[in-house]
Give the backbone structure.
Amino acid sequence: MRYIPNSPDERQEMLASVGLNSIEELFTSLPEDIRLREPLNIPAALSELELLAQFEAMGERNHAARRPSFLGAGAYAHYSPTIVDHLIQRSEFFTAYTPYQPEISQGTLQAIFEFQTLVCQLTGMEVANASMYDGSTALAEAVMMAERVTRRSRVVVSPAIHPEYLEVVQTYVQHAGIELVRADFDEQTGQTSIANDTALNAAAALVVQSPNFFGSIENLKAMAERAHKAGALFIVCVTEAISLGLLRTPGACDADIVVAEGQSFGVPVSFGGPFVGLFATKEKFARQMPGRLVGIAADKEGRRGFVLTLATREQHIRREKATSNICTNQGLIALAATVYLTTMGRRGIEEVATQCAQKTAYAARRIAELEGFSLPYSAPRFNEFVVRAPIAAAELLNRLANKHNVTGGLALSRYFPDKPNDILVCCTELNKRDEIDKLIDGLSSSSKI
Amino acid sequence: MKSHTPKAAPHVTQNEALIFERSQPGRTGYSLPPLDVDETPLDELVPEEFRRDDELEGLPEVSETDVVRHFTRISTWNYSVDLGMYPLGSCTMKYNSRLNEKVARINGFANLHPLAPDAEAQGALQLLHELQEHLAEITGLPGVSLQPAAGAHGEMTGIMLIRALLDSRDGVAESNSPRRNVMLIPDSAHGTNPASANLSGFKVKTVKSTAEGLTDLEALRALCAEGDIAGLMLTNPNTLGLFERNIKEICGIIHDAGGLVYMDGANMNALVGVARPGDMGVDVIHLNLHKTFSTPHGGGGPGSGPCCCTKELEPFLPTPRVVKDVRGGDETYKLDFNRPQSIGRVKAFHGNFGMAVRALSYILTHGRDGLREATEAAVLNARYIAQGLKDDYDKPFDSPPMHEVVFTDKRQSRKGVHTLDIAKRLIDYGFHPMTIYFPLIVQGAMLIEPTESVGRGELDQFIYAMKQIAREALEDPETVLNAPHTTRIGRLDEAAAARKPVLRWKAEEQVSAA
């Protein structure tokens, strides 16, 4: 096996030097009756060329990867500068581990410190951690943190949060004694509404996604006031982090915890992962945060360096009393986001966000003009919106794919059987005008049969 | 000891400030095509009250060249597997092949949207299904979910399966009667085990280890006699690098007490192709694709923590499952959402798919013989180190180790030299230190896991370095106590950092205003 350095002769010599005669003797501490008698039922080794051919062939079968797409809903195709993937593939980054030994891990530590800073700047928050698995698990951790901070057990969640995020939260809290209560949804605006404050009273948190799953920008300020009046924390979830380049920050709206999916920052959609969860909060809650944190430290000479810090919150010290069980996070993807945000910079992030919003406004305007189509929600939007079609969305999207070679968006019936004709459409800076025009022509002709 | 060539030599490294300190107004590092649609006035696009009003102040303004130099420079401050042996115990820092990176970037995988219809994502679903089958074969546990994103996530998933099965079996799901609630965890376990148990609503009771370093069967029986046993979370080989040879009996004791056995698969690199947890009586295991199956550790992730379980536990696995449909000779793959007994979803979409691509590439590149060969080489390397250092360091357990070996600082501490000092001094010799002060039950533990990716020459250099340090500890302890001497910064004051944490950069104006 070409990855294993020692030759058969070297292995024989090493065996002899430890006093063994055969490889089998390495495993004598395993009782005979549990040792495998036959080789695993796994194919024989493939050469590099054979393996590449096999994987290329599997990749070819993913037709959706090859056509213009208007799918968003938690995973967004954005431009990623060439240097992002180049830099994260430097051996020193991608083959290192958690920076347990700061003297020889300063590269990773400084990059995480920069990541934490960027997340704070983008969200308008005071502290951010070194990353969570993704947006959905970050949200679950935020809900549990709110319970720790407030010692209250009811959490009010917007029904316009990504349905898969809500499922994950439900899984996480099912044994934590936390009760999830759904807020209301305004079918006119497409925003969260809270009909009365009863549910909010005595709640640990109010959780809102903005832009929400249906693309509507939520009125975060008003929601924060409602939450705080009831003594609840206000948790904001962002699935399209590029929106932070244009929209008022959750921090400026007085959010207590902000979680986001950071995949939009230079990370490919990759069938759903690996992505990176962003987690930020106010300074006063820093010690209640889950996950790793990097802070500044000095050596004896007074030189600045970076270390993992506030570790007494974490599982390796606190064990069952830790703020979270997370250990390995999404380090390399956080690095990708850091390189992306640095490269795009102050101007680029804003420009990408504005282009997304502009292209979406164009697409929305054109689709609204189509006969039989409507846009059911009136709230301002960023880069996603719901289209109500005259026929079943799944069928319409099927025709679009097969006849027009366009992935037109997401049939909301996947999550909401009561919305059979609704399509969630997303535009990013990658969708050229002719693609959008093709989508519009396709929608128009495919709906008429 | 053949080679006395020191592995490392000091060399110049570049200083580099924080990217925010490099920033200059007006620099740009990106370019985008001009907007190609009719422009909507900004206020119509998003009303002012919903727009940012700080012009993203503080974010970097740098050129592309600045970015490349910045990250390249700071990267050189890291030690990495590609530089050499990285013997962090229980972390399995093996070689990460570039081929795996290449296949994960194939357009059909990297640019496939997770909500693409099944029919348009057949290659990705097939890949996930194939990996599931192989992991089932390797563990001897047929039900597999690739959704968990890391080891701790897989642990949580695994013991939630146990919770769900017990509730369903004992009929607790519908009633309010008390549940079996005790999760037994050996005192040598990784901290994520108790944290995951707590997260899943279990009460943790600790099982002692014997002087031999194995689970104490008598203690286990006594705890089981106290009742309410939901299960046991066991690492095997355990975190001392020792195989729990009584594993079948241990599983029997737990099963007789009405509980289930979860195995932490962190140390599967000692077993692949040699023995299968499913054949030992284990009910559920998580694997770390970033350890055993070589997906890169990435400076702390992404990981992937698939969960493999018995048929009995399979109905409770996270939703959706990837399943194969065979109709009239046609094989298709689909996502099965109809899982009424499932614990639910543990992550959006389909887990860390890119890690699954790399792990399958690893498995197929090794093939059945290569997988076993890797296990053999990993165990042989650890045994070689155990032999090489036994005269210089205290080895608290006599049994021969599997893929990792634990030593202590007992002999060196008499001269005031402790594990931390030995670890730091090792850096000067060109190695990443081993895992230190873990497991907690061994005072001054040094847990060394070389993996199969280290050749004899480098093992000899490592043994030489450790022997030198042992000698220094006796003859010149100051050198060890003040190590490292060759890094760009010395030991950092972690206590001060935690007392007054500075967790982000701020502009000077911001700092002075505060």
About this structure: The radius of gyration of chain A is 25 Å. The first strand of chain A starts at residue 127 and ends at 128.
